[in-house]
Specification:
The chain is of the alpha+beta class. It is built from 12 helices and 17 strands. A 6-stranded mixed β-sheet has the order 6-2-1-7-17-16, covered by helices on one side. A 6-stranded antiparallel β-sheet has the order 10-11-12-13-9-14.
Length: 474
């Protein structure tokens, strides 16, 4: 078939999911019109008009495909020809066992690829409601969906719960960090893509310093909510640091400030009570973001409180933390297994608006939505990826899992990162070294189980890819 036989598919939103979806459609020979409202209409978190701009962390998290579900998702996406992963790999910065990127270089790479693709038409301007004559639309407007479009989706679905809060971590200028107090080290000295095993800046705290820091967080002046925002819940995977502190004084030192796997070279025999980590944010190594320090503290309070951290007394901030309101669907109720809106199958959804959480997860859902839409446009049927794969497990959660209820009958569906808990379990015994040492929090048995899940996923993905190629050739 020639491309002239296909009408274009419209994509609303030029974030990670929309950019990936546009790329996948073009690779399938289907023309695309990609609509992005920036810079004609700004959002509360974006700073540029680039495609796939990273508004929060610059980390794609673990790149370990054998023992981590998000690392497995990375590898599956690479095998599926992901533009997002190609751009990430080309713009990585040291981050221990994680894949982190130079955020500007990454966005530029995605933008350049989209502009150079002849089957992709880029249009700037807000789409409040998809016109009725658009017979195939992918809505990938992400967590910062414009109010008009969010209202249209709510009206179409009859749903009222479409939002939660997310928060942004501060970024610090590297040359303002006191390296006489801080040191470079990755947790457990683990090296990752482009890393050396000493990729994070670590700021140690004694128990007294930690207690004083917790007191300051709890007492700090915070952003107040508007009346219409008051009942919007947080996503547990990205809680503001002061909200974590409110859940218990030890919560932070067992979360983003955990000292485990880190040794201060100046006092190797004395373990810090807590550690603040900063991760490289750009290729030049001039900017570092505070890991896990998303916050709703007011800007003046952030500067005052975060400068009490040893090593950050004179910190200069390239960006302070903030809070924004995110939008997501009750997807298990509203979407079919190919991400179409049951109430209007011409609309597909992709990215964080579907209830996935995380950069890579968002892009992967964009990838799947595009492949389903391309097959539909070509008059073909594409089965969902097997639930034993990272893509299939995430899709199953979004479209068919966790339709639980809480008091009053409301849905308890919440945004989710990919994790091995979403995968069908391995039923056969898994061989492992019973004498194997513990690595971090994973015993030898647990590491072997994750390895078996990953191996099964990649084998099943290959079989699914071969089957879909054969179907397309018939």
């Amino acid at each position: 078939m020639t491309t002239a036989k296909f009408a274009p598919i419209h994509i609303i939103g030029g974030g990670l999911a929309g950019s990936e979806a546009a790329w996948q459609l073009a690779r399938a020979g289907v023309p695309v019109i990609l609509h992005e409202m920036r810079p004609l209409r700004e959002t509360a978190a974006h700073k540029t008009d680039g495609y796939a701009e990273l508004v929060c962390s610059n980390s794609f998290r673990s790149d370990d495909a054998a023992a981590n579900a998000v690392g497995l998702l990375h590898e599956e996406m690479r095998r599926l020809g992901s533009l997002i992963m190609c751009a990430a790999d080309a713009n990585q910065v040291p981050a221990g066992g994680a894949l982190a990127v130079d955020r500007d270089g990454f966005s530029d790479a995605v933008s350049d690829a989209l502009k150079a693709e002849p089957l992709i038409t880029l249009e700037r301007g807000e789409v409040a409601v998809p016109p009725a004559d658009w017979d195939s639309v992918i809505i990938a407007t992400g967590p910062l969906t414009s109010p008009d479009l969010a209202a249209a989706v709510a009206q179409k679905t009859g749903e009222t719960q479409l939002a939660f809060f997310d928060a942004i971590a501060p970024i610090v200028h590297r040359d303002s960090i006191d390296m006489d107090k801080a040191w470079f080290q990755s947790r457990y000295d683990k090296a990752g893509p482009g890393g050396s095993g000493a990729d994070y800046i670590n700021c140690p705290m004694s128990r007294e310093q930690y207690d004083a820091f917790i007191d300051a967080l709890l007492a700090g002046d915070k952003t107040s909510f508007k009346e219409w925002e008051a009942n919007t819940p947080y996503f547990n995977g990205c809680l503001p640091i002061e909200v974590m502190a409110e859940r218990g004084r030890e919560t932070l030192r067992h979360g983003p400030m955990k000292p485990f796997g880190l040794t201060n070279p100046r006092e190797p025999e004395r373990k810090p009570y807590a550690v603040v980590q900063l991760r490289q944010d750009n290729k030049l190594g001039t900017l570092f973001n505070m890991v896990g320090f998303q916050t709703k503290l007011k800007h003046g309070e952030q500067v005052r409180i975060f400068r009490t951290i040893p090593g950050l007394e004179n910190a200069e901030f390239a960006r302070l933390g903030g809070l924004h309101r995110n939008t997501f669907l009750n997807s298990p109720k509203l979407l079919d297994e190919t991400l179409r809106l049951k109430a209007n199958p011409a609309w597909r959804f992709a990215g964080q608006i579907t209830g996935c959480e995380g950069y890579v997860e968002s892009a992967s859902v964009g990838l799947m939505a595009a492949r389903f839409a391309a097959a539909e446009r070509r008059g073909e049927t594409l089965p969902p990826p097997p639930p034993t794969t990272a893509h299939g497990a995430l899709l199953a959660h979004i479209t068919g899992g966790h339709i639980e209820t809480i008091d009053g009958g409301a849905s308890s569906f919440q945004p989710m990162n990919v994790n091995f808990g979403l995968f069908p379990p391995i039923t056969e015994p898994v061989a492992y070294d019973k004498d194997g040492r513990k690595y971090g929090r994973g015993s030898a048995k647990n590491v072997a189980r994750k390895g078996a899940l990953s191996a099964r996923a990649l084998a099943d993905l290959a079989q699914w890819m071969d089957g879909t190629k054969a179907d397309a050739a018939e």
